[in-house]
Amino acid sequence: EVEETGSTFAENARLKAVALASATGCWALADDSGLSVHALGGAPGVHSARYASSDTARIARLLQELEGATDRSAEFSAALAVADPSGSVRLEVEGRCAGVILPTQRGSGGFGYDPVFVPAGEDATVAELGDGWKRMNSHRARAAAALAAAVG
Question: Is 32 part of the annotated catalytic residue set?
């Protein structure tokens, strides 16, 4: 377990990659990801997974904190960091997916905040769009594509 003490997704990914590479003497790829909501000053941000004790509770807290908000814009972010066997970070990339938070949940697929997040350009939540959409368009997919492009 690596303590996620960074203030950004990139910092946390870096911490994890360095710790794993240093402990194993092998190349390491690590990530950190989450949801940032404009009206909440970027929260839950790096605390997305720790915002509450379960997906249901996290969504409930998010919707409660957004009650009355007119700006419901948000983005999912995924940061990837690659460290070499000595623990030096050799590559960092990030992927983002902008959208809005709905006032109620829709869809039964996915996990986390998927039932309340509608990506820009879509009419459905990530939970409704499904795994195929996520594999091609999510913040993680975009980070993976950036990593693939960086390594050629």
Answer: yes
